[in-house]
Amino acid sequence: MTVKINTKDGQIELSDDVIATVVGGSATEIFGVVGMASKSAIKDNFQALLRKENYSKGVVVKSMEDGITVDVYTVMSYGVKISEVSKNIQERVKFNLENQLGIHANVVNVYIQNIKVVGED
Prior knowledge:
The structure is a single chain. The protein is an alpha+beta fold. The chain contains three helices and six strands. It has a single domain, classed as Alpha-Beta Plaits. Strands 3, 4, 5 and 6 form a four-stranded mixed β-sheet that branches. It has a two-stranded antiparallel ribbon with strand order 1-2. This is Alkaline-shock protein.
C-alpha cells in the first residue's frame, strides 16, 4: 500500500518501505531504544534486531484519508522508563514524518518486543 499526496503539480506516492525507513530511523535515535524488532517476533520466536534495510518488517503503516496510523515494534534497553521512552518515540516519529515527508500521523503505537541488557564494552 502507498500513501498518496496531492500537490498542485501532481501526485506523489510514498511506499510503506519509505515511511518505515523514516519511522525506524526516528525510533532508533531515541535513548533507551536498542533497535527495531520484527512485528511477529514473539509469534515466530525470532529475537534478532532488524537492520536499517529491514525496518519495514518492524513497522506497520495503515493509510487513511486524513493521515496514517503507525505501529512501531522496538527492543528497549533494560533499566529505562518504558513510558518515557515510548512517549519520546511517538513524538519523534510524528515530528519526522511531518517534516521529512509531509505526512500527518494520527496515531503512533509503540510495541516493546523485547528488553535487552546492554553490556559495557
